[in-house]
Amino acid sequence: MRNYILKRLLFTIPTLLGVFIVVYIVIRQIPGDPAEVMLGKTATTAQIEIYRTAHGLDRPAIVQFWLALKHLFVGDLGMSLSHYRPVLEVVFERLPSTIELALYGIVISSFVSIVLGVVAATFRGKWPDLIIIAFSTLGTSLPTFYIGLWVLVIFALKLGIIPVLSNMVKGTAYWKTLFGPVLTMVLGGSLVRTTRSSMLEIMDEDFIRTAKAKGVSGRKILFKHALGNALIPIVTMVGYGLAISFGGAIVLETVFVRSGVGKLLIDAIGSRDYPLVQGATFIIATFMILANLLTDVVTGIVDPRIRVAGDVSF
Amino acid sequence: MRELLRNKFIVIGGSIILIIVIIVVFAPMLTKYDYGAIDLPNKQQAPNAEHIMGTDAYGRDVWCRIVYGGRISLTVAICSTAIAMVFGTLLGTLSGYISGTLDFVLGRIVDVMMAFPMLLLSLIIGIALGSSTRNMFFSIGIPIIPMFYRLSRATTMSIKERSFVTAARSMGSSRWRLILRHIIPNVLPYILVIMSSAMGGAILAESSLGFLGYGIPLPTPSWGLIVNDGRSFMFTYPWTTAFSGAFIALTILGFNLLGDGLRDHMDPKIRTAAR
Amino acid sequence: METLIRAENLSKLYFINTGKTFRKTKFTAVNDVSFSIGKGEVFGLVGESGCGKSTLALLLLRLANASSGSIYYKDVDISELSYGAMRKYRKNLQVVFQDPYDSLDPRFSLEQIMEEPLKIHHYRDKGSRRDLIVKMFSSVGLGSELLKRYPHQLSGGQRQRLCIARSLILSPEFLVCDEAVAALDVSVQAQILNLLLDLKDEFNLTYLFISHNLSVVKFVSDRIGVMYFGNLVEMADTEELFRNVRHPYTAALLSASPDPDPESTKQREILGSGVPSIINPPSGCVFHPRCKYADEHCSREAPVLRDIGGDHLIACHKADMVKDGGARA
Q1: CA dihedral C95, C97, C102, C104 (to 10 degrees)
Q2: Mutation to test the B interface, candidates C105, C120, C121, C123, most B Cβ within 10 Å
Q3: Is residue C39 within 8 Å of C206, Cβ to Cβ?
């Protein structure tokens, strides 16, 4: 197991490096002088000169990249053009809000999904099953922004339960700032069908039949045997869902005007604050990699087969 | 074929897509306005006999814009999926067939691509390429490449172990012949199945980018752009967003159902590969 | 007799990931095997599944690359030829695989399957291709009305006939039959075996006949090699081998094969303790953990293949004891 984690950790390093390369290349594609792109139109000639020397802009491309990497290692992602502060500082300030949203969202929406999935599997083919399937299929097909907009219209505008601008209004109850985006994630309920199908798959297996034949009670079969085993694919899906929700935050935070990293990134693109775009993108990707890593490790712990399986490389 | 039609998902999903395609293709016959015609006195009308889906903030007929916008959005979806499919399948097949260094390098590149949320990758590729409809094909298509890459790689690896491939080698078949005549034709059915899901994903990406304000440049109406137009007036006049969003959702639903149906119909191993 | 194909010290190593982070375990699938097959000969290769006999066949045909050793086809060393350079030899070296369901591309019609080797080797005229195919079909007992069909519409026996037809259409000199009848019903097995023997005469073929079934090999072969765990342990003419078994493993194989005589009271010899671990192979003679004659010498030193007279080769320290007390079929 330790070896497995070690191996996965090692593979993270080239991926992170790759992410940085991609972001670096993208920023370099923006037309104009790189120093001006990164310092903005208001920069003085002196500032530009200093930036040029620090980043070796008059030196070969490979040296430039090496210097950029060195800046990354000391946590220097440049100055935000719109916030007039170091990029990393701005991003870390917004990070808790995004993590909070992702965690609450994934925990609550997974819980609801799993309950609905189990219910659907129990009533396989009957009306509760059909209704749940129909709604979850619809939910996964609706774009996040669309669900979000309707949640706003209904709960903010018509019912007045939550404020339109979630965390902009001072003194709003904590749960109200999260209600909208989390409800949107719940309605998107992508896990319902995964839970249902993995439950059904398990229910068809021989050991469940054996348990039934031995006269184990229906409830015990459902919760102990079936759900216990179906949990492995579900845990995987929850983990990947967490990773994806860092991306989903971009849309959710824009809809609900939450000041998280996603909204920060979108605003940065709008105001051509490229150092901030670079920093926010890198941080989001890093969190996604970490979430995937965590998922793989947890799945490895939950499922003994993954740990042991050495792939025979013929 | 008859067996395919017995699958509910395929029939429902396929019908939805078919209807939307027909609407979009016959757009001129189904509309009586110019999608760009501004008519300020009649702005923001609720649905009525003249404008079945109302008018937007500039008095443009929403139904008309949605129908013509569908042409753009479907074109973007088709082209970006095609780009993803061609590159993903080709690289995935080579990667699975040749293995070794090429496989390792491509695998790490795909890891990097998958470290970005798809929407974020689209956004930053968009920044790098600049905004135009053609660049949109790439900024939406490239993030979908891993989906095709992983599936075709996994399928190739299982197909190349089969005796008919070894038999072809023993006949003296060239490597290209092996890949083109034996491996790709056997990988393709699996690819076609996830194409439907990929199309749904592309529609979603286009509309999400449009919603965020980084979609296809004006004045072409695409679904994403129409949603974004309506968004500012969402609380006072939700019709524009409601109808355009519903069309987007319906299209994605159609592609998802079709994809699910085809997937059920095919080998179950596809489920894990096309996460 | 002119030698058609010859293997010299062929070895094949695989590296297996056993869950250790950066270490891979070495596994010897074929270990230092040398033998030759004369033109017109039927050489049988027996051994239990997983003993490396199929790997050996793939090595001979250059469908897998040997880790060391050489392969000679009519005194030409083909073991180092590139993929492209090897292609012109391929039409002479053909193979029929075990699973006739897996050996045929499901997306090809029978005609396309038969045409493929011809197209690869530039038989450009469609009409003469067609004539060749029809002729070959009648040789293997398939009707040409099947040409428009697809493999899934055929029976197992028909499929194997098709595989044979495909491999013979380039008029090869050497045909490897890798468990060619193992996947078929017993009644069909006999038909296919007889067909193969007829075709051998018709087309002047040389066979390498691989099987785990000793009776099948005995039925078709002029000479037999016995493989155990990647090693060639005994090799002799069919008659000599059955009359004068000298390796304890061959003796055990013989005693395990079913006897058609209901009155026979032969003593079966049961091999203990199963096949050795591929990750941790036994020291010395690979057979010693299962051998009833093994002593300390056997676990220390691996025996080499030596000629005990009459072209009977054997790799065993205890060959003399087998002669006295060995089981006889």
Answers
A1: 30
A2: C105
A3: yes
Name every residue in A having a CB less than 8 A away from some CB of C: 3, 6-7, 308-314
User: Predicted confidence band at A313 (pLDDT cuts at 50, 70, 90)?
Assistant: very low
pLDDT in tens, A199-215: 887 777 777 778 777 77
Residue A166 has pLDDT above 60, yes or no: no
Hey, are the CB atoms on A254 and B212 less than 8 Å from each other? yes
Alpha carbon of C161: minimum distance to chain B alpha carbons (Å): 15
- Cα–Cα distances (Å) from B14 to B21, B43, B69, B189, B199, in that order, read 10, 36, 21, 17, 13
- Which chains, if any, share at least 3 CB pairs under 8 A with chain A? B, C
The CB density around residue A73, as the number of other CB atoms within 10 Å, is 8
For residue C282, cis peptide bond before it (omega within 30 degrees of 0)? no
Please name which of C130, C120, C71, C59 lies closest in space to residue C95, comparing C-alpha atoms.
Answer: C59
In angstroms, rounded to a whole number, what is the distance separating the alpha carbons of residues B176 and B183? 10
Distance CA C154, CA C146 (A): 9
- Count H helices and E strands in chain B, helices first: 14, 0
Asked casually if ipTM beats, i.e. exceeds, 0.90, the reply is no
Model pLDDT for residues A113-123, shown as the tens digit of each residue = 888 988 888 88
- Asked if C18 and C24 count as a contact pair (C-beta separation under 8 A), the reply is yes
Cα(A181)–Cα(A6) distance, rounded to whole angstroms? 36
Question: Residue C14 pairs with which residues in a beta bridge?
Answer: C27
Q: How far apart are CA A213 and CA C184, in angstroms?
A: 38
In chain A, which residues have their Cβ closer than 8 Å to the Cβ of B109?
18
Q: Which residue of B has its CA nearest to A273?
A: B127
CB contact at 8 A, B120 and A265: yes
pLDDT in tens, C74-122: 989 998 888 888 988 998 999 999 888 889 998 899 999 999 999 999 8
pLDDT beyond 50 at A308: no
Write down the pLDDT at residue B87: 96
pLDDT band at B230 (very low <50, low <70, confident <90, very high): confident
User: Closest partner residue to C103 among B167, B172, B185, by Cβ?
Assistant: B167
Residue in the block written with tokens 């393709």? B188
Tokens 């490389």 found at: A313
- Contact assessment for residue B184 and residue B120, using Cβ atoms and an 8 Å cutoff: no
Average pLDDT over residues A69-74: 81
Residues of chain A in contact with residue C20, where contact means CB-CB under 8 angstroms, are 3, 310
Amino acid at site B149 = Y
**Using a CB-CB distance cutoff of 8 angstroms, which residues of chain B are in contact with residue A275?**
none
CB A314 within 8 A of CB A15: no
In three-state secondary structure terms, A264 is: helix
C-beta separation of C236 from C227 below 8 A: no
Place of tokens 């995935």: B92
| 3-state SS, residue A25 | helix
How many percent of chain A have pLDDT more than 70?
91
Q: At what angle do helices B184-212 and A144-151 cross, to 10 degrees?
A: 30
C12 contacts in A (CB within 8 Å)? none
Q: Which of A271, B171, A263 is nearest to C91 (CA)?
A: B171
Shortest CA distance to C208 belongs to which of C77, C80, C89, C61?
Answer: C61
pLDDT tens for each residue of B84-103: 999 999 999 999 998 888 99
Handedness of CA C179, C185, C186, C188 (dihedral sign): negative
Give pLDDT < 50 ranges for chain C.
Answer: 324-329
Interface membership of B170 toward C (CB under 8 Å): yes
Query: Is residue C244 a contact partner of residue C323, using CB atoms and an 8 Å limit?
Result: yes
Chains that touch B (3 or more CB pairs under 8 A): A, C
Q: What is the C-alpha separation between A195 and A114, in angstroms, rounded?
A: 6
pTM of the predicted protein model: 0.85
